[in-house]
């Protein structure tokens, strides 16, 4: 179920995913005065930047001849755990199927014609958040707007800046290569230096990037990222998931074959490493005793880790 806002009437309507009309979708960073689903229904918080974002996004969508808009702040009833789980597991697809993704950058006060715009754009906090990674990669049309809601370019025209800010290859950014073709470690590396407010969201924001689904258990902390890795292992035999690194000084007591967080996939500053997919061999499997795989060293032997 996809709940959309009518961009003229500012009312909700719900659609089945397969029958949803063309819609714009909003990518943004959350502030302190966001309008929740219940606030929207009750007519509350009609002042402040949270409401202004909704109104301005509707105006921009109407200018693109789009009648419908989705924004996560009020289009998801977060009091319903079932709806929240469904929404987060569906979100990558919602961004992918949108007609336009409207990316709001309130920390940019320049226009794309002003000197220094490129540097300010690259330093936007939007490029540092966990959730915005999928919002960058999934949409086919992604438009950027500054603090005054002025259009300052799209993903194609700002490509050089985006590559510089994220380190993501242009072919993935433009959809010329499927994100799923990147190795697990490479996708993890894209997320490695991004931050999320809640520990669990470091894993949940990557579900679409790895095309996996799993229930949300807020309160489980770092276990969420371990669950994510186990789901990835069930789906793929890409051994680069084990190609993580962690500074021994910072790792503390952590031990295990799986990484403690996406940050462990960041390339060390002292290294020049390009993570490649390991040549295919007999698939590994997860058993009740741990991971089972075959490793070649002179003669092929079975190993359990």
Automatic annotation (TrEMBL):
Residues 23-105 form the Heterokaryon incompatibility domain. InterPro entries: DUF8212 (IPR058525), HET (IPR010730). Residues 223-246 form the DUF8212 domain. It comes from the Eukaryota. This is Uncharacterized protein. It comes from Zasmidium cellare ATCC 36951.
